[in-house]
Specification:
Radius of gyration of chain A: 20 Å
Oligomer: homodimer
Largest interface: A-B, 56 and 56 residues
Distance between the termini of chain A: 66 Å
Helix content of chain A: over 70%
Order of helices and strands of chain A: HHHHHHHHHHH
Shape of chain A: elongated
Amino acid sequence: MAKKKLEEVDLSTEEKIKDAARRVFMKKGYAATRTRDIAEAAGINLALLNYYFRSKEKLFELIMLEKLAKFFGAIAPILNDTNATLDQKISAFSNNYIDLLTANPELPLFILSEVRANPERFVNKLPVAKVAESHFIQQLQEKRPDVHPLHFLMNVLGLSVFPFVMKPVFHASGILNERAFAARMEERKALIPKWIMGMLKTK
Amino acid sequence: MAKKKLEEVDLSTEEKIKDAARRVFMKKGYAATRTRDIAEAAGINLALLNYYFRSKEKLFELIMLEKLAKFFGAIAPILNDTNATLDQKISAFSNNYIDLLTANPELPLFILSEVRANPERFVNKLPVAKVAESHFIQQLQEKRPDVHPLHFLMNVLGLSVFPFVMKPVFHASGILNERAFAARMEERKALIPKWIMGMLKTK
DNA sequence: GATCATTTTAATCAAATGTTTAAAAAATTG
DNA sequence: CAATTTTTTAAACATTTGATTAAAATGATC
């Protein structure tokens, strides 16, 4: 006979707690998450959270580090591939990143919400330098020295990420269901490179 | 002699509380905001918050309605101006909206964070229908029947809004200060219409 | 200026919340 | 299998937090 709900009975206690923390923190954010929520979601005794992770904050930092690595880690390697053309980088990025976010749709808004709610905590903690000084940026400067390269970086990022950021709004509005959203995002993989390459030619 | 900090001593008590609530809710979000924070920021006795607004939640709903109206209210009129061409709508939107967000930089992330943290609360409460069925959408369908119009709506919106959503990240990373950000956004007012019109021609 | 209504205050309440404690249960070791 | 360590549990603790209360202060009305 099956166990109730999503309880991961085969995992170690530590992993059960981390798994539950990922779900609850991602869904409600740090401030709205109660340690009892996590304990319940993990199917463990409340005290075990502190036994294994000392505090709610320590547990959160652990999860947040994971999520930051996932969100930012996928960007830099692609944009620093010195063997790839601009076109190739943009294509690789939109394809890979849309796949990543399709598998982790709440990732961007989770990170953005937490940084906004507590910016001091993240000062010099966000691995973005590798992106801001990437080979991609250099190529942009060569191709279009008349436009600040950050514009194009922002656009590649925005065209891929922004739909996921707006997803809760569109969903609550009932104007875009799960299936339609997935279809649009699949289309964007091919559209975004075309659009951006077009931008780079626009005078 | 000046009064301490930002206390708005000339306003009515009710307005003092609302003003403080706007600041604190916008900065920390609903869950992380304590009624005592608001009372302190307003320079009033804690009990007055409940005297005038019954509860933290009621006060929040008031502020949220304001912010939703500000965020969504500016979009529909522009996109439904039947006298404006596509180009004119896009130009009017990026100019007006970037001005609006420059004056209210935390507005998008505030709304997006709250919707994400509590989506049920906003079901059928977001005035987005007027946008999804706008004259702008009709024009897009005529011009490019081969691409779903939501893509272009998403792009106009994203290119304008996404930088403000990423602002805390860029700022915490130290790769974009206040002045540089303002400069880029000023540039985007003219760039976005060019980019989008280019997209509409891209086959 | 006495009476009544409105606004403000200090104190308190009850519930929620992160964390700790001490003992029980389970696992490990020699 | 006895001794020891590790893990789990139930209970409780100390704060925090949203809200209320009753009285005081202020303002309005006749």
